[in-house]
Specification:
Blueprint lengths: L1 E2 L2 E2 L59 E3 L5 E5 L4 E5 L12 E4 L6 E5 L5 E5 L2 E6 L4 E3 L56
Length: about 200
């Protein structure tokens, strides 16, 4: 049925090509069995996609809009305007599978953390490796400030060791002290002499 404002179609219409230059309003469902090519802005309230969706450009999510995963949406990635969150609120853990896990600064120019499977895990300060794990233990580069107790089976120092408090030691072969040495259980000399 034609009218002064256009065409009113009731029922099914088959057309080879339909070009619309104005506004089209559909009160029912639209079933597109082929490709749907939309140029310009499209405002959709809800989209349910059963197949694969391919984006050739960026996907823009506004502040506090979440990219959600799972049947219960228990994993989400979002930005609140100040911080970016990776939130896992479901059961199980957050598992990252990778051949190398690297955390860099915002510019991507400095390493903060690097983890290698069957290899070292390293922490960086100002892009300088300060702590790395190895097959035999941990390697630390630079000065170490420890406020608690340190217990070790074996320790090798290639440089000087400065101790501000008390050093308690057992089964020591050589001691070179600049200041006062206090022996609480006596001194036993099995060879050599004591010189003052």
């Amino acid at each position: 049925q034609t009218a002064t404002s256009g065409i009113n179609v009731v029922g099914t219409t088959t057309t080879g090509q339909l070009a619309v230059t104005g506004v089209s309003t559909f009160t029912g469902n639209i079933d597109a069995n082929g490709d749907l090519d939309v140029d310009g802005h499209t405002n959709l309230d809800n989209v349910s996609i059963a197949g694969i969706t391919t984006f050739h450009t960026n996907v823009h999510l506004l502040d506090n809009d979440k990219l959600q995963f799972g049947d219960s949406q228990d994993f989400s990635i979002y930005h609140d305007g100040s911080h970016t969150y990776i939130e896992d609120s479901g059961t199980g853990g957050l598992v990252a599978k990778t051949s190398q896990f690297v955390v860099k600064d915002a510019a991507g120019s400095q390493n903060l953390f690097v983890a290698n499977p069957s290899g070292p895990v390293s922490l960086f300060y100002n892009n300088v490796n300060r702590l790395s794990t190895s097959a035999t233990g941990v390697s630390i580069t630079g000065n170490n400030v420890i406020s608690g107790n340190v217990s070790a089976v074996d320790a090798t120092f290639t440089g000087n060791v400065s101790i501000g408090g008390t050093l308690t030691y057992e089964d020591v072969q050589n001691v070179d002290a600049v200041g006062l040495i206090t022996a609480r259980s006596g001194i036993r000399v099995t060879g050599g002499v004591i010189e003052a």
